[in-house]
Every structure is written in structure tokens, then in C-alpha cells.
Amino acid sequence: MSSTISGPAAAALNSLTPSQLKFIQMLPKAELHAHLNGSIPISVLQELAQEFAHLSDSGLTSDAIEEGIAKLRNGVVLDEIHDFFNLFPAIYALTSNPSNLRRATRAVLEQFLDGENPQCAYLELRSTPRETPEMNRRQYVQAILDEVERYPPSKTNLIVSLDRKMTGDVLRECVEIAIGLKAEGKRVVGIDLCGDPTAGDMGVLEEHLSRARAAGLGITLHIAETPANTAAETIQLLSYTPDRLGHATFLNDEAKSIVLDKKMCIEICLTSNLLCKTVSSLDAHHIRYYLQNDHPIVICTDDTLPFRTSLVGEYALLLAASPLGLGLTQDEVKRVAEMGIGATFQSRLNPPDAVRGTGQARKVETKARGG
Ligand SMILES: CNc1ncnc2c1ncn2[C@@H]1O[C@H](COP(=O)(O)O)[C@@H](O)[C@H]1O
């Protein structure tokens, strides 16, 4: 995995001694903030792009796709976070039918969970239901679940993302899909809010999030990701009592005291914040504030594809000596990893290792047999 990473995480990783690297690899880690379409291995995306000519209409030309893939392959340079969202049309053109979406999902799951030294012990993968000419939103989520459920629930589950630009009707539909699938015993464990951090009106979310919570789903919200996110919006999102928060980079004192009081776990994505330029250096990163306050955090990758990182790479940023890393001790890094394991929706909201329904148990057996 380390061969495909580059930038700050690779530099930190390369500075570690073999025993430090082994320590990170062996540490049980949870990845709780990984966007599916931002985590597809570049090799798989390239394969899908080569087959693109045979795909049905996606609204993009092969040249536009090729250009998008080339950018991702060579490493993206973002002037600011809004540039980031322009990367997705090329990726979406390649994951717009159930079969390609399943291939992409399988590759993402393998990237995190398989191999001699898996990146993590547990993955909560997230994705935004998308309607395309070839699938509706429910079929989109079902296609991902078909792959997720090849693994046991102790390894991976799905979070359904809501995009800040969604209309009330689409928000309702997505939450209903998540609740309905959960009620059928499918492995949806939570709801996320993501997308362009300055888009949308957050007032429309309340009723949808309460329904999700009442149905036993965990709630995580991208919050205060940019300086343009207002204090009023941040307080409004906190009033929906999320269990976890994505980024939480620009919290004022009032927001910080709510977060600390309610022990809302912060999903920290170091490389993502550096490359999106919402944080100027590791030294200035808000992770320091949460570490000082012994507040629950979980270290995550966000989007391994554009940010060319890995979960082991993100942990290397904790352990490596300054200025390449934060210079935490191994005991401190171990404590951070334990906090992450304790913050999963699986552990909070579901009985441990529950395999609900024989259908799931069968799929897990199939995987174990190599099917
Ligand atoms: C940089 N930090 C971020 N902030 C906000 N939203 C982000 C994000 N990184 C990814 N996404 C959201 O996830 C989608 C891709 O995965 P899915 O199609 O859902 O699987 C992006 O289109 C964006 O809406």
C-alpha cells in the first residue's frame, strides 16, 4: 500500500524505524471516515476508464474522464477546498452502474481490510446515494451493501451520506432507504452529512436526522470544515446531537465546550486538511487541542485517492518526529487507536459481532470459502 502513497504521509512513513512501522501496522485501528468514491484505488479507476467506451451515457466524454484520472494519478494540487469537489464528476462517470459500483466497492474494501498487513481492523465506509440512468438510489446503496456484507459485521458496515446540496425530498428518500434497509437487517449503521462545506441550508436537516436517530442509526456530520462556515451554522448542527463530527476544524469556544461536554468524537483527517489548505501545518492542527483535552478522536483518511494516503500513513503522521509528524509516543498513539475503536457505530449502537439474519451469515461463509 505504501507504494501508492505520496506527500506528507509518505514522508512521515519513510522516517519511521522498522519497529515503529511494525508497531503501527499491528495496532488495531478503526477507519470511520472514508468516502467510497474518494477511496477507489487508481489502478481500478484506470481499468474502469479503459472500459468507459462501452458504458452508457454519463454526460462526460472519454477525454474528460482521461483528464480527470490523469490529475488523480499525478497528484492533485488544490488552491483551496472548493477545487476538491471538481474531481468527482470523472470518478462518478465510472461508478454509475451497479456492476462498476460493486467493483469499485470491492476494491476499496480490499484496500482497507485485506492483505498481509490490513490497513485497519474495522471500516465504516460511507457513500452518497446517487440516482443514475442505470440505478436508483436504493439500488445504489444495495449494490454497495452486497459487497460490504461479504465481510462479517465486526469488520465493516455502511454509513449513508447525505449531501449538503440535496433537496428535502431527496434527504427524506435517502434517510428512508437507510432506515428501511436497516430494518431488513442490512448493514447500514449510520448517516453522514457531507459535500461542498458552504452549500445548502442546514435547517432542513433536523427532521431527517431525528428520524434516523429514532431508528437507531448513528449520526456523523461534517462540521466547520472551512473558515466560511458560520458559528450559527455550527451551533445549529451541534443541536442535532451528532455522535461524531467530521473535521470540526473551525470551532469557536462555545462550540468547543458543547463538543467536549457531549464527548462527540472528532474524525481527524490530517493529510486531507493539509492538502485542502484548511490547516496550515501539523503543528497548527486542531488535533493538538483534542489530545490536550483527552477528548475522543479517530484518525481517518477521508479520500485515499486524491490525497494519496493510507491509514497506516495517517498514523505515521502521529508517531513521526516533528516536523514530519506530531511526535507522539507509542503509548499515546495506542491510546488514540483505542479511542477510534471505541467510537464505531457498530460498538455503540449494535450488539458486538451481531450477525442479524441468516442471509448475512451465508454471505460471510461464502467469503470465508473464497467465493
Ligand atoms: C475533503 N473533505 C470532504 N468534505 C466534504 N465532503 C467530502 C469530502 N471528501 C469527500 N466528500 C464527499 O464525498 C463524495 C465522494 O464520495 P461518495 O460519492 O459519497 O462515495 C464527494 O462528492 C463529497 O460529496
Verbal overview:
The protein has 19 helices and eight strands. Helices cover 47% and strands 12% of the residues. Strands 1-2-3-4-5-6-7-8 form an eight-stranded parallel sheet. By secondary structure, it is an alpha/beta fold. α4 (62-74) crosses α6 and α7 (98-113) packs parallel to α8. It has a single domain, classed as Alpha-Beta Barrel (TIM Barrel). The chain binds N6-methyladenosine-5'-monophosphate. This is Metallo-dependent hydrolase. Keywords: Hydrolase, Metal-binding, Nucleotide metabolism, Zinc. InterPro entries: A_deaminase_dom, Ado/ade_deaminase, Metal_Hydrolase. GO terms for molecular function: adenosine deaminase activity; metal ion binding. Residues 362-371 have a biased composition (Basic and acidic residues).
Write the layout of secondary structure elements.
Layout: H1 8-14, H2 18-26, E1 30-35, H3 42-50, H4 62-74, H5 81-84, H6 88-94, H7 98-113, E2 122-127, H8 137-148, E3 156-163, H9 168-183, E4 188-194, H10 206-214, E5 218-223, H11 231-238, E6 244-247, H12 253-261, E7 265-268, H13 270-275, H14 287-292, E8 297-299, H15 304-307, H16 311-319, H17 330-342, H18 345-349, H19 358-368
Parallel strand pairs: 1-2, 2-3, 3-4, 4-5, 5-6, 6-7, 7-8
Helix pairs in contact: 1-16, 2-16, 3-4, 4-6, 7-8, 8-9, 9-10, 11-12
The structure holds N6-methyladenosine-5'-monophosphate.
